[in-house]
Write a structure and sequence with these properties.
Elements lengths: L2 H29 L4 H33 L16 E3 L2 E9 L4 E2 L4 E2 L2 E2 L1 H13 L5 H10 L13 H5 L26 H7 L3 E2 L7 E2 L5 H7 L5 H13 L5 H6 L12 E2 L4 E10 L2 E10 L7 E7 L1
Parallel strand pairs: 3-6, 7-8
Antiparallel strand pairs: 1-2, 2-9, 4-5, 9-10, 10-11
This protein binds calcium ion (CA) (2 copies).
């Protein structure tokens, strides 16, 4: 299919799920007593049904994509942002983000213990973003199983119990990037700067070199400067990496990779859906995990 045909196919797939949701909502509306009091509740239910339709659209698109190929890059249909689509009394819009194009913060710890290699990579990411290296220590302590504080900015129970509203270190993988708000040093400013480059996935994952930003590529590949990573991404925009060998062949002279934690495909995606009904806006997001067959499973979902 050419890009225009693909675009049409996606919009059609989206329309089908959206229509199903609208039908459901319409049924709920007929059943409810149409009083002023119930109006807000119906709008809320309608918004949730539409958000679910948006998430199902994302699942359908991702499942189709896996049937067609085992490579994931930013020119594929799943990566297109859809223009807002009109629905009853409002509109629905959404897009999908590859979570393996980001640095998975949970990679810092493997089997409860800090990975020195991953800790170094995360420090490089922090440095590229102009953030203090000490953040790597506090986050590693937050995730690792033990209660032994890392030097230089580390923090375990003793630190968190000394806060005005005390709590304990999680000592397990992050469930969501939003949890960073609890970790020592991760202020609003830090999280705003870091947010676009990180994810928090339930298992240790590889980085997809077809979707990773220059910042992330430079962090996870030894000897790849930010400028070299930018040049590589500019080249990738013209021709995506077909496989691992293709990627390693196109690296700058002298940069060697010898690790299996780089890939050209992804399994974890975030679906972001926005619904506007009668001027009110609702947002939902869902972390999806894709298997080789069938619709991706929902790891978690949130309404905002
Ligand atoms: Ca694909
Ligand atoms: Ca710990």
């Amino acid at each position: 299919m050419n890009p225009a045909q693909r675009g049409v196919a996606i919009v059609m797939a989206m329309s089908v799920v959206a229509l199903a949701a609208i039908a459901t909502t319409a049924m709920m509306m007929t059943q409810s007593t149409w009083t002023r009091e119930s109006e807000l509740e119906v709008d809320h239910a309608q918004a949730q049904a539409l958000i679910q339709a948006g998430v199902d659209w994302a699942r359908a698109v991702l499942s189709d994509d896996r049937r067609l190929n085992n490579v994931d890059h930013l020119k594929e249909p799943w990566a297109l942002r859809l223009p807002p689509m009109p629905v009853d009394n409002g509109e629905l819009a959404g897009y999908i983000e590859d979570q393996q194009g980001a640095f998975n913060l949970n990679n810092l710890v493997l089997g409860g213990k800090i990975s020195a290699v991953q800790l170094d990579r995360f420090r490089r990411l922090l440095s590229v973003l102009g953030l203090p290296a000490t953040l790597a220590n506090s986050l590693a302590d937050w995730i690792d199983a033990d209660n032994e504080q890392q030097p230089n900015g580390g923090a375990e129970d003793e630190y968190y119990l000394s806060l005005q509203s005390p709590y304990l270190a999680a000592n397990r993988p992050l469930t969501d990037v939003a949890e960073l708000a609890l970790v020592r040093g991760f202020s609003d400013e830090v999280r705003a700067r870091l947010g676009p480059f990180v994810s928090a996935l339930p298992v240790n994952t590889a980085v997809n070199v077809n979707t990773a930003s220059p910042e992330v590529l430079s962090a996870v590949i030894d000897g790849l400067s930010l400028d070299a990573a930018r040049a590589l991404v500019a080249q990738r925009d013209r021709a995506y990496f077909r496989d691992y060998t293709d990627f390693s062949n196109r690296l700058p002279h002298g940069v060697e990779i010898a690790n299996s934690d780089l890939k050209v495909s992804s399994n974890y995606f975030l679906a972001r859906v926005r619904v506007t009904i009668g001027g009110a806006e609702a947002r939902g997001l869902a972390l999806l995990v894709r298997a080789d067959i069938g619709w991706p499973a929902i790891v978690w979902r949130k309404y905002q």
